[in-house]
Amino acid sequence: MNDSGRPWTRGPRRPRGNLVKRNHVAPGYSFPSASSTEVWKHHIPPVASVESLDDPRIARLLGVPPGTAVLRRFRVTGPESEPPFQINVSWIHPRVADIPGVSEQAPGPGDWLYRLEKAGHWPLSWMEIHRARMPSKEEAALLEIPTNLPVLEIVRVGTSGDDGKPVEVTEYIVASDRVETIHVLHRHESARDPWPDDVEDSHDQDEAGGS
């Protein structure tokens, strides 16, 4: 049961990779959690409003002083047939907030990022920071989970391809039992060449010398 006394309904666990896909139907992007072909919906009406950015961590990542008035896009989304999957809160830097379409709700996901790129910030690049934490009561209610279930918090920083500075920071909050992350490991340059044929002989000689 969740905190409101209603049955707690789980959805399937979803793998989360690292590919950002371009939408086929309308301009915009789909990020890893929502990159499949299934239809997602808004579980509450989406909101865009100017708010005080009081979180010093998010303010630092966006490159503004804490307390700055910042355009905030608030969404609770997920597949049509499932409980809410994620809360996403986007903070848009004041220098790009007035670009037409950035504060509007378009038919396709990520349309506002397309608007930023069309206004001269192509190509946007992204970096993510992942951490586990406990949800607030409000977050748990929006995700329809108990307050004792940890969430995965993903903070995405979008950087302008024009001036190399942040244009947006988006927080994703996902119930921890609904997601698993997938990471491709990359070899350091010291580990890219094949092992030499004599490496075992050299190792044996070193051990013999040490004894």
UniProtKB/TrEMBL annotation:
GO BP, sorted A to Z: negative regulation of DNA-templated transcription
InterPro entries the UniProt entry points to: Bact_HTH_transcr_reg (IPR050679), Chorismate_lyase_/UTRA_dom_sf (IPR028978), UTRA (IPR011663)
Domain named UbiC transcription regulator-associated: residues: 41-180
Pfam families membership: UTRA
Molecular function in Gene Ontology: DNA binding
Segments traversing the membrane: none
Biased composition (Low complexity): 1-10
Region (Disordered): 1-25, 189-211
UniProt signal peptide: none
Basic residues: bias regions: 11-24
Name this protein carries in UniProt: UbiC family transcriptional regulator
Originating species: Micromonospora rosaria
